[in-house]
Write a structure and sequence with these properties.
This protein has 467 residues and is α/β, with parallel strands linked by helices. It has 13 helices and 22 strands. It has helices at 13-24, 40-45, 47-66, 82-106, 164-167, 184-195, 215-227, 321-335, 364-370, 385-390, 418-430, 435-439, 450-461; strands at 2-9, 29-33, 110-113, 115-118, 123-127, 132-142, 146-148, 161-162, 176-180, 199-204, 231-234, 237-244, 247-253, 259-264, 266-269, 273-275, 308-310, 349-351, 356-361, 374-380, 396-402, 408-415. Helix 1 (13-24) packs parallel to helix 8 (321-335) and helix 3 (47-66) runs parallel beside helix 6.
């Protein structure tokens, strides 16, 4: 039986990064993955393929709606070839997963394909179609990720009533796509197919979309997506989804109890994700789960068995690839005897619609609830020269700062390239910058980043220069 210093179960962003960091620190490392390709949900059926389709559909929308304004004239009809878009997406996924294989080889990490399950606290059985082998490890990291959540009354046939996985590989552009769930996944994939010509209706149980983010972002994104002709049914509880041939019926009740019936050819169920521990046999290792199926860990991400750790979507907290990466790095360094730290308040969140939505730190609602005295600086993207030049006028940057100390407590933005701009806010907050600190930094002109400086000026002395 092969013996390792560390065995990582799951090769998503958390798992493969943990394995690399362990190897860098001189630990003999094994990575166990039940599927044939590495990278987990993120690289195979999540972050990477969805962004590929978002980019392709964005190009199509620009060609059909904006090129003429830019002086680009294309004779004849512009056609969306979904099969080619899907093929390009698959190519991007293949390149990315092969990149992970290269990194495993480079770092001399042993990769084992098969379902990993505990035989005891130090022994893992890896079962594949070809063979079953046992390995032992001094330390084990559970990084098995998550799967799409289900609603108990919905039968997902994966043909017409689908999850995000199937939505990434449809054979046709829907005529009408009903999206159950107004969170990140539903909005991103809904926008993909709206751009390509589908009618899209989003049904959300809460009274607003992206309900975990600052309410101002939710309000602005709703307004923008309505302009894009996406329909929203907010405060609606879906209670039945049925299929008759190629027609899917979605029944929901509003907050007054009035029923709405929607008919579509596809229904995407995007109500979040659930931790995935199926087949792990955690009880054999003395590892405990909570009532939601998440692995219970302490502040160092240790389970009840101190040499077994869990990271990423399988533990409590935001289900974000970059959060999993940070946890994978932290656990590897803890195992190596170092003392790393993660500030979970500074893990940014992003919605990759267009305009993009990004945030870090506290929302205005959270500050109010906590009784923190704060001030607000906000600046509209449409006041920027760069926004006018690119025709990306929607959105704003909003900075929340402590009313007494001026320390930045939260940054919330919606607009072009906000997924990249949020890194400036994370950096500033990591160094506990004040709004004035940001306002005194030179920002290149003309850029979208100038909105961050202007919002900081507005928060500091209410003296934004360009409004």
């Amino acid at each position: 039986m092969d013996a390792f210093d560390v065995a990582v179960i799951g090769s998503g962003p958390g798992g493969y990064v943990a394995a690399i960091r362990c190897a860098q620190l001189g630990l003999k490392t094994a990575l166990i993955e039940k599927y044939n390709t590495l990278g987990g949900t993120c690289l195979n059926v999540g972050c990477i393929p969805s962004k590929a389709l978002l980019d392709s559909s964005h190009h199509f929308e620009d060609a059909t709606k904006h090129f003429e304004t830019h002086g680009i004239e294309i004779p004849g009809e512009i056609i969306a070839n979904l099969s080619k878009m899907i093929a390009r997406k698959d190519s991007v996924v293949e390149q990315t997963t092969k990149g992970i294989e290269y990194l495993m080889d480079k770092n001399k990490i042993t990769v084992l394909h098969g379902l990993g399950s505990f035989k005891d606290a130090h022994t893992i059985q890896v079962a594949s179609e070809k063979e079953t082998v046992d390995i032992s490890a001094k330390n084990i990291i559970i990084a098995t990720g998550s799967k799409p959540s289900r609603l108990p009354f919905i039968t997902q046939d994966k043909e017409r009533i689908i999850t995000s996985t199937e939505a990434l590989s449809l054979k046709e552009i829907p005529k009408h796509l009903v999206v159950i769930g107004g969170g990140v996944i539903g909005l991103e994939l809904g926008q993909v197919y709206k751009r390509l010509g589908a009618e899209v209706t989003v049904v959300e149980y809460a009274d607003r979309i992206i309900p975990s983010m600052d309410a101002a972002l939710s309000k602005e994104l709703t307004k923008v997506m309505k302009k894009q002709k996406v329909k929203f049914l907010l405060s609606h509880a879906v209670h039945e989804v049925s299929r008759e041939g190629e027609i899917v019926k979605v029944k929901a009740k509003d907050k007054k109890g009035q029923e709405v019936v929607l008919e579509a050819d596809y229904c995407l169920v995007a109500v979040g994700r659930s931790p995935y521990t199926e087949g792990l046999n955690t009880q054999a290792a003395g590892v405990h789960l909570d009532e939601r199926g998440r692995v219970l860990v302490n502040d160092h991400l240790q389970t009840a068995a101190p040499h077994i750790y869990a990271i990423g979507d399988v533990v409590a907290g935001a289900m974000l690839a970059h959060k999993a990466e940070e946890e994978g790095t932290m656990v590897a360094e803890i195992i190596a005897g170092q003392k790393p730290h993660i500030d979970y308040n500074l893990i940014p969140g992003v919605v990759y619609t267009w305009p993009e939505v990004a945030a870090v730190g506290k929302t205005e609602e959270q500050l109010k609830e906590a009784g923190v005295a704060y001030k607000v600086g906000q600046f509209p993207m449409r006041a920027l020269g760069r926004s006018r030049a690119s025709m990306d006028l929607d959105g704003f940057v909003k900075i929340l700062a402590d009313k007494t100390t001026d320390e930045v407590l939260g940054v919330h933005m919606i607009g072009a390239r906000c997924a990249d701009l949020i890194a400036e806010a994370v950096t500033a907050m990591e160094f506990r910058a004040s709004a004035e600190d940001i306002s005194r930094m030179s920002h290149a002109h003309p850029t979208f980043a100038e909105a961050v400086k202007e919002a900081a000026l507005a928060a500091t002395e209410d003296r934004a220069l360009h409004i």
